[in-house]
Amino acid sequence: MREPSLEATLEGAPPAAASETVATGDEAAEGPDCSALGRRVTHCLGPAGGSVRIGPLGAVVATSDGLLTLEVPAAALRSPVTVRIAPTTAPPWTEGFVSHVYDFSPDVDFAIPARLTLAYRNADVPEGVPEVKLSLYTVENGAWTRARESAIDRRKHEVSAPLDRLRTAGALAPMTSLSILSPAGTLKVGDSQVFQAVTVPEGRAVSWAVAPRTIAVIDSHTGRLTALAPGRARVVASGASLLRAAEVEVVLPTGPGVDGTR
Questions:
Q1: Which of 61, 147, 192, 221 is deepest in the core (most CB within 10 A)?
Q2: Buried b (16+ CB within 10 A) or exposed e, 221-240
């Protein structure tokens, strides 16, 4: 069960302060202190997270344990938005976490990307996984997706990435295995089917492609393929540095076993 949240209001980015939090419970007397983090923080939250109101002037939000920093630049938001940040005790859909997983509510879109930084412990890195393979992931379309431009600082043990939108996020070890489940090897012109990927760890996002696109088209996110013309098409799933392919034959809808390419 999560601890009570911390409530605060931040319209802009005033000079750094140890804390401007109106806290509840045991932290009400002193409030969280981010002065030991060695970075400029305009708003400090406790390890349990809390709520912060961020305006057009931006903000630098951090948790006092140093595990999360959110840097929102000026002009990233057109109007003030109250964002709740909290670690979750039940990370969804996958394994391989090396950091806390944080929920953000509501999802917020930025006109200029904000930078999210999450810290990890060496002890939490899976055996045999190089630190350079760790990345920041967010949940998109129901799957864990590696953030573009994810970067790692091995000296500080942090992963970070610019984000256009706040979503559930965590630092993860890479996908180690990928395979394709193909529902059928033959498809009639005009029909469609959904390809599925099996990933290890499960729940990781993959990107779909097909060639030639004169034979079929595929949704890069969902894996739904639609047959356009007779012929053979190659479906490719990619994730992390892994690639897997499957073939599908498209036939004319004139009866079973008819191949319009012959």
A1: 61
A2: eebebbbbebbebebbbbbb
Rounded Cα distance, 114 and 167, in Å? 12
Contact 11, 80 (CB under 8 A): yes
The C-alpha atoms of residue 243 and residue 185 are separated, in whole angstroms, by 19
Identify any residues that bridge with 53 across adjacent strands, giving them in sequence order: 82
- Report, at the CATH architecture level, how domain 25-172 is classified: Sandwich (2.60)
- Closest by Cα among 200, 202, 228, 201 to 215: 228
Q: What is the pLDDT of residues 207-246, one digit of tens each?
A: 999 999 999 999 998 999 999 999 999 999 988 778 899 9
* 8-state DSSP, 66: S
CATH topology agreement for domains 25-172 and 177-251: no
How far apart are alpha carbons 118 and 70 in whole angstroms? 9
172 touches 137 (CB < 8 A): yes
Peptide bond into 91 cis (omega under 30): no
Domain boundaries, the chain: 25-172, 177-251
Question: What does the pLDDT look like over 108-125, one tens digit per residue?
Answer: 999 999 999 999 988 888
Q: In the numeric block, which tokens belong to residue 161?
A: 């990435």
Which tens digits make up the pLDDT trace of 190-218? Answer: 999 999 998 887 778 889 999 999 999 99
Distances (CA, A) of 186 to 197, 216, 229, 259: 18, 12, 12, 10
